[in-house]
Write a structure and sequence with these properties.
globular; Isopropylmalate Dehydrogenase; binds nicotinamide-adenine-dinucleotide; alpha/beta; 14 strands; 10-stranded mixed beta sheet
Length: about 350
């Protein structure tokens, strides 16, 4: 049976890095006797140029028929690109929000992994890093403060603003289930992050996470207050496997976790829902400053393809192969310009893709 993979090449470096990820997918397809059927989907600036809007109804429908979607990144130079002269709802990023919402992707997963070979880029001290860390932030993506009621008003001559943080038990349960499922594929530890000493929404969060945890006796789990979690991420990131948290806390903690690895060109991400469908993309943007020069690092996108195989297609062995090939390429001393250091061999986007393919 052929798996249906949607491919969004996107803008800026998107087409270059996606081409390398597809090359890697083709290699594992050949090795494992799988068939991948690719369908091109337009999103962001590319879709504005072709169809006058960042996501067409047809493109969303096509994406919904896929087993999974692999994406580069979208957007252009926000000061000079004509896309940013358009009203906000017609700009490239509006397409990204619309596809996530339209496909019901409520769980965002961002791994933060420190490669031994790239330790020098990590801003933490050697004794904290130890032999590295490997964690994922599982963030609720469609509820909480960012989606609650909000308004700005004047009362007794004073301007005031209110935002509302609302969560239903159903929203908490489905993301918690996703978090524990992911932990079962990893080191079987969940740290649920909340602010239960202050917020009602966090106390409900904790109650539902406790209920979900009962069905995962193999998973070790703990609760941690968000202020402490922010400190622990820089004090001892090794302690974490899966950090499970609500939308705003996850927004902040996932960026903090990415920063402590020090290498933006290496970080993948996935947006998931209850079934196996997911949208996979690098954590970085479309880097218009280096587009078309064959210097962008394709590894974040290649690792996103690996996540796609693992979490949407259940092809764990093929995903392991890709992860190992990336590690081997770094061990062998090859670097794109963003992760280059003395004594290493600098290669371009296509060469990096070829070197990874050779090692699968
Ligand atoms: P960016 O992540 O594109 O770039 C930040 C810096 O990192 C740049 O100097 C860039 O050259 C470098 N960089 C990023 N990815 C790299 C890679 N793979 N290899 C080597 N260097 C890399 O962020 P930005 O400049 O703030 O945003 C550029 C555009 O991307 C904007 O239009 C923004 O809205 C968009 N964006 C899109 C997404 C997405 O598609 N999910 C996410 C973030 C930003």
């Amino acid at each position: 049976m052929a798996f249906k993979i949607g491919v969004i090449r996107g803008d800026g470096i998107g087409p270059e890095i996606v081409a390398e990820a597809v090359k890697v997918l083709d290699k594992v397809a050949e090795k494992y006797g799988q068939e991948f059927d690719y369908t091109e989907i337009l999103l962001g600036g590319a879709s504005i140029d072709a169809a006058g809007e960042p996501l067409t109804k047809e493109a969303l429908e096509t994406a919904g028929k896929m087993d999974a979607v692999l994406m580069g990144s979208i957007g252009g130079n926000t000061t000079t690109s004509p896309w940013y002269k358009l009203p906000a709802n017609l700009r490239p990023e509006a397409g990204l929000l619309a596809i996530r919402k339209g496909l019901g992707l409520f769980a965002n997963m961002r791994p933060a992994y420190l490669y031994e070979e790239l330790k020098a880029a990590c801003p933490l001290r050697d004794e904290i890093i130890g032999d590295g860390f490997d964690l994922v932030v599982m963030r609720e993506l469609t509820g909480g403060l960012y989606f609650g009621e909000r308004r700005t008003y004047v009362e007794d001559g004073i301007e005031k603003a209110v935002d509302t943080l609302t969560y239903g038990e159903d929203e908490i349960r489905r993301i918690a289930l996703r978090g524990f499922d992911i932990a079962m594929k990893r080191r079987k530890k969940v740290t649920s992050v909340d602010k239960a000493n202050v917020l009602d929404s966090s106390r409900l969060w904790r109650k539902i996470v406790n209920e979900v945890a009962m069905d995962y006796p193999e998973v070790e789990y703990e609760h941690m207050l968000v202020d402490n979690a922010a400190m622990q991420l820089v004090r001892d990131p090794k302690q974490f496997d899966v950090i499970l948290t609500e939308n705003m806390f996850g927004d902040i903690l996932s960026d903090e976790a990415s920063m402590v690895t020090g290498s933006i060109g290496m970080l993948s991400s996935a947006s998931l829902r209850e079934d196996s469908f997911g949208l996979y993309e690098p954590s970085h943007g479309s880097a218009p400053d280096i587009a078309g020069q064959n210097i962008a690092n394709p590894i974040a996108t290649i690792l996103s393809a690996s996540m796609l195989l693992r979490y949407s297609l259940n092809l764990d062995e093929a995903a392991d192969d890709i992860d190992a090939a990336v590690k081997k390429v770094l061990e062998d001393g090859y670097r794109t310009v963003d992760i280059m250091s003395e004594g290493m061999t600098q290669v371009g986007t296509r060469e990096m893709g070829d070197l990874i393919v050779e090692r699968i």
